[in-house]
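Tokens for Succinate dehydrogenase subunit D. Go.
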Amino acid sequence: MTVTIDNPRAPRTLPKRRGVNWEKWGWIYMRVSGIVLVVLIFGHLFVNLMVGTGVHAIDFAFVAGKWADPFWIVWDTALLWLALIHGANGMRTLINDYARGPVFRRILTWSLLGATVVLLILGTLVIYTFEPCPVGGPAELLPTFCGVSK
């Protein structure tokens, strides 16, 4: 019996695929977002823990003062979106690797997508609608830095 082995250096012809290669773009996103997230996370930790009096200064007034600057609103929004989508993409990979059966995999993937969208919307709303001193708010519920006499 004779066995022939194909030449390993012979050019291979793969079938042409149409459409977007989502796995490739997901892989690229994970690498790029990971690098950007390292910068965003260490910047976030440095400002919140090292500047000023450290962790003891983080309270409602600290967040209100930080989000009064548009730079920190954009910074925290980018951190939220990149981290959440990065994590969801990692979970999608785990679902694809370990979920048995196409129906169960589809249910988990759509549930993950739904949870990710809801969290992105809620987190973005919190960042952009945060108002520490609402006009006409009850004085006993407002923080002391709002300048309302109780």
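The chain has a mean pLDDT of 89.
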